Amino acid sequence: QDPASVVDVDGRCLLPEGPVAEAWAALRRSWGPGARHLPSGAELHLTLRANHRGDVLVLVRGGRGRGNPELLLERAPPVRAIWKAFGRKGGLPRLLAGAERLKEEWYGDLLDLVPEAFLQGNREAAKRLHDAVLGELREVRGKRLVDAYCGFGLYGLVSARRGASAVGIESDPSGLQMAGGLGAEGFRILAGTVQERLPEALPADLVVLNPPRCGIAPGVAGMLVTGVTGRIVYVSCDPATLARDVRRLGGSFEIRRLQVFDLFPQTAHVEVVLTLDRSR
User: Which residues are tagged catalytic?
Assistant: First the structure.
């Protein structure tokens, strides 16, 4: 397939969760000739996200106006809410139609499903990845843990409930919004970038790194070398930037274990969990 070509993905695609595939097929049937019931414009980006109950949230990016979201909700039953994103200058997304709050369950916590917050799309594979990361942390009781690039703070929350003193660091407003309704004794989140806030969280016995595809900033590696006494568990969606960052750590840490998770079946992308222990 020519990488520059447009591929029409219909309701028979096997990659999404069942509710997402069902909602997508219903939207395709319902948006009318020329997609006239969607906001108008040459470029439109729809993000569909299902919660644990199968309710689907749609986030609309681009386009002008609001379209006819009420009609789409009526004709596409799996869809429970339609939001419109306006970019950083326009502020947070605005609800166009449907439920203002949908809940998502993750490790026993009920979270508000925030339209722009990052969550893995492959629910079953993501659970295996999270279990693997928590397993690599081993016994955390009494340890100091940093959950860097933490999103809503999954690893920090679970570790605090297991007896750790945990600090999360997150800069994305959507992740912070999802974290707002959660809490655990011994866990707090610092709002800001990791390179700005990490010095406040160190020293630590354990660190979880889950950065975006670009990896960690150069200065972060130096802080980890001087401030981490035990183990680093690095979660990466780009093996190339992961290798670069490990090289930046020099000989201060040695590779203990590498695990690969296929969160994106039938693509070239994988998620890697790399365990690094302080060199003796």
Answer: 237
Q: Is the dihedral of CA 114, 103, 263, 44 positive or negative?
A: negative
pLDDT value for 191: 94
Helices (H), the chain: 18-30, 69-75, 87-90, 123-137, 154-161, 173-179, 194-201, 218-227, 239-248
E-assigned strand segments in 102-170: 103-106, 109-112, 144-148, 165-170
CA dist list (Å): 277 to 39, 207, 261, 272: 51, 11, 21, 16
Q: How far apart are CA 130 and CA 134, in angstroms?
A: 6
What is the longest distance spanned by two Cα atoms in the chain? 66
Q: Using pLDDT thresholds of 50, 70 and 90, give the confidence band for residue 180.
A: confident
pLDDT-derived band at 146, boundaries 50, 70, 90: very high
Closest CA to 83 of 101, 63, 60: 60
Give 255-269 pLDDT, tens digit per residue.
999 999 988 877 888
